[in-house]
Amino acid sequence: MRSVTIIVLILTIFHSTQAWHAECGTEICVDGQFCMDRNGNETCVKSSMGSFIGISNIPENTWVENHQEYTLFRSYIINFGENIRHITIGTDTPLELKYNESSIWNINYNHKTLSEFATPPYQAGIKGGKSFGWGFIIKGKACPQMKIRYLVF
Questions:
Q1: What is the phi/psi pair of residue 28, to 5°?
Q2: Is-contact 102 136, C-beta < 8 A?
Q3: CA distance linking residue 151 with residue 94, whole number of Å
Q4: Signal peptide: which range, if any (predicted)?
């Protein structure tokens, strides 16, 4: 019985360390939320509040090289609402890039987490009714789901 309790405890700790969370002002945002910064005031909001932003991942090409399948994706953040100054997007699983830096372009990629993208400093936000695009090459065909993690107006 004791060994079962220890195993359950270890699995619980492992699961809790795998769940996404991030500081947001005085709060901690968790899965199903993102951090919204409006005029310097940060607060966690439900992901459904970000419905004015679309994220599209389009597989453009797939090929096999040295017995490994790769897919090139073109991705877009589409802003259906008001002007955005900055956005960070997280993936549900780490990306398995073909190479390191050369397999992702036109966006900042967090190489520590392997699962976060942010608009680059040279991108002056995304105006309402406009989109921002980037690309990446991954092993396999399965593109991870992407969610808003941080949004600055």
A1: -120, 120
A2: no
A3: 21
A4: 1-19
Give the DSSP letter string of 52-86: TEEEEEEEEEEEEETTEEEEEEEEEEEE-SS-BSE
* 40/34 Cα distance (integer angstroms): 15
Query: Residue 1 and residue 109: Cα distance in Å, rounded?
Result: 45
Q: What is the CATH number of the domain that holds 112?
A: 2.60.40.290
pTM of the model: 0.76
Rounded CA-CA distance 89/130 in Å is 17
| Range 23-49 burial, b when 16+ CB lie within 10 A, else e | ebeeeebeeebbbbbeeeebebbeeee
Domain total in the chain: 1
**Count of all residues that appear for the chain in the document:** 153
Structure tokens belonging to residue 102: 């050369």
pLDDT (tens digit per residue) in 93-145:
888 999 877 899 999 998 788 789 999 999 999 999 999 999 999 999 999 89
CA–CA dist 85, 83 (Å, integer): 7
